[in-house]
Design goal:
The protein is of the alpha/beta class. The chain has one domain: Rossmann fold. Helices cover 22% and strands 33% of the residues. It contains three helices and nine strands. The strands form two sheets. Strands 4-3-2-5-6-7 form a six-stranded mixed β-sheet, with helices on both faces. α1 packs across α2. The longest helix is centred in the N-terminal third of the chain and has 18 residues. It is globular. The structure holds 1-O-pyrophosphono-5-O-phosphono-alpha-D-ribofuranose. The site of 1-O-pyrophosphono-5-O-phosphono-alpha-D-ribofuranose has 17 residues, from β5 and α3.
Length: 180
């Protein structure tokens, strides 16, 4: 199978500079809010890995990181399915200040499941930071403590977001071309 060297994009939604600027602003807000506390950032694989890395490198307080992976099954873009944890955290979170890190919150089903599951492990506090918030597709009301951008119902790639597992490594966020 040949892979086109040029990504199948319609247009760039946020440039590398725009993403970096917002990441630094959100990193500053989180650093301020959690100053003097022992913060653990939990990345949801795989999409959030790039955002978590950029965000924590821009933060000015020490942070711990951990990761989990989820499986969504019987799910398509237009039919959200069930969610389960496929790879759990390495360490307990009891008594800790925890921020779940997502690349995108869409229907909210994944975030709700993860927040409920993590809340059951008795953290001291629990919040969520997402790079993108696609509120128009939300099925469940969800408080989002920190977000970089709200976006319309676009299919986007880059900065961790994929199309068939590719294009996560683009440094910008782009709208996919229709009919790819
Ligand atoms: C994406 C994203 C969230 C979830 C959000 O993950 O990283 O975890 O979808 O969707 P929801 O709000 O409708 O539940 P995806 O399943 O694409 O996996 P990936 O991170 O490995 O790309």
């Amino acid at each position: 199978m040949s892979i086109a060297a040029v990504p199948p994009i319609e247009r760039i939604l946020f440039t590398e500079e725009q993403v970096n600027e917002r990441v630094h602003e959100v990193a500053a807000a989180i650093s301020k809010q959690y100053e003097g506390r022992d913060l653990k950032m939990i990345g949801v694989m795989k999409g959030s890995v790039y955002f978590l890395t950029a965000l924590t490198r821009a933060m000015t307080i020490p942070v711990k990181i951990d990761f989990l992976a989820i499986s969504s099954f019987a799910s398509t873009r237009n039919s959200p399915g069930m969610v389960r944890i496929a790879k759990d955290l390495d360490e307990p979170i009891e008594g800790e200040d925890v921020l779940l890190v997502e690349d995108i919150v869409d229907t909210g089903l994944t975030a709700r499941y993860l927040l409920q599951t993590l809340a059951g492990r008795a953290p001291n506090s629990l919040g969520i930071v997402t790079m993108l918030d696609r509120t128009s597709r939300r099925l469940i009301p969800l408080p989002i403590e920190f977000r970089c951008f709200e976006i319309p119902d676009y299919f986007v790639i880059g900065c961790g977001l994929d199309y068939k597992q590719r294009y996560r490594n683009l440094r910008y966020i782009a709208v996919m071309r229709q009919g790819v």
